[in-house]
Amino acid sequence: MSAATARPAARAPRRRSRPAVDTWVRALLASDLSPLLALVAGLGIVMIALGFNAARADLSHAQPLFWGGLIVVYAPIALRLGSRSASRRERLVLSVLLGGALYLVKVLYSPTGFTLHDELATWLQTSDLLNSGHALGANTIVSGYAGFPGLELLTSALDQLAGSGVFLSGLIVIGLARLLVIAALFLFFERAGGSSRLAGVAIAIYVCNPSFLYFDSQFGYESLALVAAGALLLVAQRWAEPVAGDREWNRRGLLVAIALLAATLALTHHMSSYAMTGFFLLWTLTTIVSRRRPHLRKPSLSGPLVPALIMAAAAASWFVLEASQVTTSELGDVLTEAVKSVVHLISGASGGKKLFQSASQTNTAIARALGVASIVPLLAVIPFGLWRTWWKWEENALHRALAVVALFFPVTLFLRLTEAGTETSQRASEFVYVGLAFVSGLFVLQLPPARTALARYGRPLGGVALATVIFLGGFIVGESPITRLPGPFLVGGEARATSPQGIVAARFAAARLPAGSRVIGDRPNVTLMGSYGHLERVTGSIEGIPVSRVFYSETFDELDQRVISNDVIDYIVVDRRLSHEVPAGGFYFESTEPQASAWNAPIKVSALRKFNHVHGLSRIFDNGAIAIYDTSGIRHQ
Amino acid sequence: MNGSRHPARGLLLAAALAVAAAVVLLLPLPAWLQFVFLAPLALVLPGYALSYALFPPGTLPIAERCVYVFVLSLSVAAMGGVVLQLVFGLDQALWALLEVTVTLVAVAVALRRRALLPIQKPGADRLSAGARRQGARYGLLAALGFALAAALAVFAVASASDGVREQQARQVFASLWAVPLGGEVGEPVPVRVGVWNHGARSSYRLRVTGGEQILEQIPVRLGARQKWEQTLTPPPDAATGDLELTLFRGVKPYRSVVLNIGVGR
Question: Which residues of chain A neighbour B163 with C-beta distances below 8 Å?
Fold first, then answer.
């Protein structure tokens, strides 16, 4: 102090202002910023809504508004979640706010009705349940929905009791699930790591998983199953690592809760129930293996073994009793193709797919750079997590299990090198990111306090810039360029191929054609026919002939006739716009069609017009873009 | 056990709301009021009661209990629904019966378990009067902030919905259809014909031809999003062969459908 007083008076004001600014900043940071950040997130959501509107009108400012909006929603909240000054309550509120705001992005994508493929499958299942009063009916759009009716049952209960309609009921159910899965994960991370800051950072990283923004927000069984899985994690954690001795005095309550939640999960979603079984078994394994002792410990019933056994029993029972066929047909194909493609890739029998490219659509250089840059920090944090949990400090079985889960991340990246493995990789991300998020939280928590002003302000800003890159890159990795934003009609463009003409044709089918009639057509339109139209969508092949052949053969020949007659096709839906361009998603009809991902010219106009000249075929509907043909005059030939 | 506070208040309220919801079902109330009473019966009340039956008051943080409330409500709908639909068709009455019964039984179990457990910590989280006043002031500001954020979210959804409608409105088209309504082979088949206009108000002319003959011409005037339907019965000599319906806008053919009636029917 004496040295300071000896300095010239001119320097005194500067010295006084520094602590004043610092005090002001500290006071600001010490207060609860969640209402302010909610407002900022609201502005980000408005930007995204305007960006989507611009995209629908094919305007150039759509992209900056959308990406800018995402950053405005994510970055400030992530910054605050990682700060040292936020309170526990604020972190929890901000985590839930982040999850909710990102759910709204999906709502803004299709705010007036369901348009995504899986959403239409769920709509069909729910609609059938409402009409018949019975769950577990077959689903011709996604076979798996037939065996896992949790979402449809809750949605129909809400719809029938409150009269809210399937669309609004679905939005409410999935919206609540989204808010609460984030709350559940926050509590899980917080209890596991003993720090709300760790939990906040972990949530900021978890929402970067490639499925989070759209896939896990859609009206689909997995979106709901995640909250059941989150609740089960919390109860299992209470069982294995008791809070205030609750396993002693509330043993029965905990066991019943585990059983109820495991059963709920088992009949809500296959992958989630198997993933939870796997995780509990892994957690059990990490309680057995000890670094310090050369021998294995005996598994204890007071550990995660009990939740593992209950979850396994629930999943196996539901599989045997009800869901074996649909699970095998849905997951079996996906996994088999993934394994095959990886084996072919390793053996050199086939090449890898081009990364960041889907069919005719390619990512920009910036998008590719963001995608790659998002992966690097996550890969880097995995060795730290393993070192920190397996070789250093305490022996915490849950920490170790989560670090091993993070280790699956490179495996899922490897799967992305093949076309068939991409779906498996995508589906695994919401589980793998639980481990990645936890080790990321551990990493941030063990960083030493900043000693200089530059480090104090620079490090959080650098950290949030990195987190934003991970967030944007994760979205880029998981979502095709054609479906990130809505837009004008695009042939084979998933939700963007769902047009008003297609919806009107499906409404006509529902009103005027016999329910359950068998129909073929391109994927978006036949999905609409299978859902809103109440017809039965037919895909695959008959007697070795792909049914899609009917559409691209030059003339209506004997093989086409065999498809119509032997597969008992009642109606053919023809979208004339298919002849305008190659399918953006790589296929017109189904991913297994002979020229999938290899179309270099659109379907010929003559191939689609041939139906007008087939004697006995009636064109019963026409709205310019879409025509429906009744085959009853030729089916028995 | 718990001083002047009545820890069972929430449970009793849940039971009362469940019963009230069942009564509301029978009353001809406005849709929004039905929604306010009955949505919690599906999403909250059974889970709330079950969460207290499994985890007595004072044993869970509020955020964790919220998670269980929703997921246990899902459990009731999913497991109860799966079992009931094996025997009955699920409808509004059955859902109400299931949800109310589970809520009341779980409330009873929760009340019983609450009485058996020795742990209640009244007042552990009580704040001083000053802190409460400060909290209330902050709470008002926070509520204002969150309310504004919610208003922005509502504006965003409304704006996006308008965007979708505008995009759909840019698609101007009309649909024409004709569906045979059954009939015997060799007999005239009645045909249900319809036009659905998805553009601005328009005038059309529908021409029906069988073979080379014009059988009928019908003027059709439709406003935006209006639909026109009529059942036509072709003459007996059109019992076999093609029946062509052409929709004209002005003098130009706009849409056409062709029915092969009589063949294979």
Answer: 49, 52-53, 56-57
Q: Report the residue of chain B nearest A500, measured CA to CA.
A: B168
pLDDT in tens, A357-409: 655 667 888 999 999 999 999 999 999 988 888 877 567 899 999 999 999 99
**Domain range holding A356?**
30-242+249-478
Q: Quick one: pLDDT at residue A68?
A: 98
Q: Do A268 and A378 share a structural domain?
A: yes
Same domain, A363 and A414: yes
Q: Determine, yes or no, domain membership for A11.
A: no
**Which DSSP string do the residues of A303-358 spell out, in sequence order?**
TTHHHHHHHHHHHHHHIIIIIHHHHIIIIIHHHHHHHHHHHHHHHTSSPPPPTTEE
C-alpha A517/C-alpha A535 separation (Å) is: 5
Q: Are A234 and A307 within one domain?
A: yes
pLDDT digits (tens, 9 = 90+) for A257-287: 999 999 999 999 999 999 999 999 999 999 8
Number of separate domains in chain A:
2
User: Taking the model in full, what pTM does it have?
Assistant: 0.90
Residues of B in contact with A616 (CB under 8 A): 260, 263-264
Same domain as A365, residue A442: yes
* Residues A442 and A556 reside in one and the same domain: no
Residue A617 CB neighbours (<10 A) = 23
Flag if A501 and B43 touch (Cβ within 8 Å).
Answer: no
Asked whether the beta carbons of B67 and A183 are under 8 A apart, the reply is yes
In this predicted model, what pLDDT tens digit does every residue of B108-132 receive, in sequence order?
Answer: 999 988 876 655 554 444 556 666 6
Cβ-contact A593, B143 below 8 angstroms: no
Residues B120, B8: Cα–Cα separation, whole Å? 12
Q: Is the pLDDT of residue A85 over 70?
A: yes
CB contact under 8 A, A183 and B63: yes
Evaluate if residue A9 carries a pLDDT over 60: no
Q: Using 50, 70 and 90 to split pLDDT, how confident is the model at A4?
A: very low
Q: Give the minimum alpha-carbon distance from B203 to chain A in angstroms, rounded to a whole number.
A: 16
pLDDT at site B265: 38
Q: If you write DSSP's letter for every residue of A531-596 in order, what string do you get?
A: TTT-PEE--SEETTEETTHHHHSSS--HHHHHHHHHTT--EEEEEGGGGTS--TTS-SS-TTSTTT
Quick one: closest CA in A to B77, which residue? A154
Are the Cβ atoms of B176 and A623 closer than 8 angstroms?
yes
**In this structure, is residue A10 part of a structural domain?**
no
A176 burial (CB, 10 Å; 0-12 / 13-18 / 19+) is buried
Q: Which residue, of A454, A478, A502, is where some domain finishes?
A: A478
CB-CB: which of B152, B161, B255 is closest to A45? B152
pLDDT tens-digit profile of A519-538? 999 999 999 999 999 999 99
What ipTM did this prediction achieve? 0.90
Q: Which of A620, A621, A626, A631 to mutate to test the interface with B (most CBs of B within 10 A)?
A: A620
Of B155, B167, B259, Cβ closest to residue A46: B155
Q: Based on the domain organization, do A509 and A615 belong to the same domain?
A: yes
- Residue A2 domain flag: no
Which residues numbered 131-190 in B keep a CB inside 8 Å of some CB on A? 138, 141-146, 148-153, 155-157, 159-168, 171, 173-180
Q: What is the mean pLDDT of chain A?
A: 89
- Verify whether the Cβ–Cβ distance B79 to A263 is below 8 Å: yes
Region A151-178 average pLDDT: 97
Q: Are both A88 and A45 inside the same structural domain? A: yes
Cβ-based contacts under 8 A for chains A and B: 295
Q: How confident is the model at residue A457 (pLDDT cuts 50, 70, 90)?
A: confident
Q: What is the pLDDT of residue A21?
A: 66
Domain boundary among A427, A449, A478: A478
A507 and A462 in a common domain: no
Task: Report which of A203, A191, A258 is spatially closest to residue A228, judged by C-alpha positions.
Answer: A258
CA dist A407 and B195 (Å) reads 60
Nearest-Cα residue of chain A relative to residue B85: A134
Indicate whether A3 belongs to any domain.
no
